[in-house]
Amino acid sequence: MKDTLTRLKYWYQRASAAGAEYYNAPYRAAIARAKRDEDDLFMLLVFGEMMGIPNPASWYTLELQPLLLERFHDWHKRMGMERSPLDNMRCC
């Protein structure tokens, strides 16, 4: 009995994962694009103060800058800036 329940649970989990994959597949690109846009906006919020954009939450976003430095180069390239827009921070 316990073995049967274990097998049913396993098949139920596999069917659930397959169903989620089937229904999410058409929206995957749109979700990825929305996440990237949201990340770009967050990056602008964090580094905006250094580019001259007033930020009322700059004290809090200052702590996040070291965490986002690895992604900064990709971000400014994606935003159309060939070189780093920050004078005191060169990434390329």
Give an account of the 3D structure.
By secondary structure, the protein is mainly α. It has one domain (1-79). 67% of the residues lie in helices and 0% in strands. The protein has 4 helices and no strands. It has helices at 2-24, 28-47, 58-62, 65-78. Helix 2 crosses helix 4.
Q: Topology, pairings included?
A:
Elements: H1 2-24, H2 28-47, H3 58-62, H4 65-78
Helix pairs in contact: 2-4
What are the main properties of this structure?
92 residues, mainly alpha, elongated
Q: Quote the distance from N terminus to C terminus.
A: 63 Å
The largest pleated sheet is described as: none
Helix/strand class: mainly alpha
Strand content: under 5%
Taken in chain order, the helices and strands follow as HHHH
Shape: elongated
Number of helices: 4
Helix share, percent: 55-70%
Number of strands: 0
Mean pLDDT: 88
Radius of gyration: 22 Å
Point out poorly predicted stretches.
none
The domain count comes to 1
Task: Give a quick precis of the structure.
The protein is mostly helical. The protein is 67% helix and 0% strand.
